[in-house]
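Hello,

Our lab assistant flagged a job as stuck in the queue for most of the afternoon. It eventually completed. Since we weren't sure the result was trustworthy after the delay, we are filing this so someone can double-check. Below is the sequence as submitted and the structure that was eventually returned. Let us know if re-running is recommended.
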Amino acid sequence: MTTAAADFPTDRKKVYRMYDLLTEESVQVQCHANSREEVVDIVGGLLVRSGAVEPKYIDAMKCSLNANGPYMVIVPGVAILHARPEDGVSRVCMSLVTLSEGVRFGHKDNDPVDVAIAFGAIDQHRHIEALADLMRLLADEGSMLAIRNAKQVQDVLDVIVKVLS
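-- returned structure --
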């Protein structure tokens, strides 16, 4: 049996970098939220509006956070929000939101959160480089301070490109 080349997506082996996934449409700065659920709504809503995830992905991120606790708050002030690919991910994606005021997620050491990042994976491989980029960014205190203080989306994107280039 032969399979036409058109049956395979052309990017099936593409590995995504953080700067491939974060765009003007998937970043917001200085947002206000009253709860961790609102933070998830904001950062997840960016992924929904881009068509990268279904609305149920936001609910799945909230369920995971509620069921597993605030383990997604991985370093002081930063939450990495996600759910499983089968929870409605259409393509590899990432969004980033800075908060004008920190929001408590319930983590005893890393609260309050003032930077929330959501990502969606479609397999176990294509998002790994973007997550490695994210770890490099989180380790750069000056860049994280610049992101936290950014008043414009383009400022955040410029920091990311500078750190990862």
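-- support follow-up --
The delay was a queue issue, not a problem with the job. The result is valid. Residues 1-10 have pLDDT under 50 and may be disordered. The helical segments are 18-21, 36-49, 56-68, 128-139, 141-149, 153-164.
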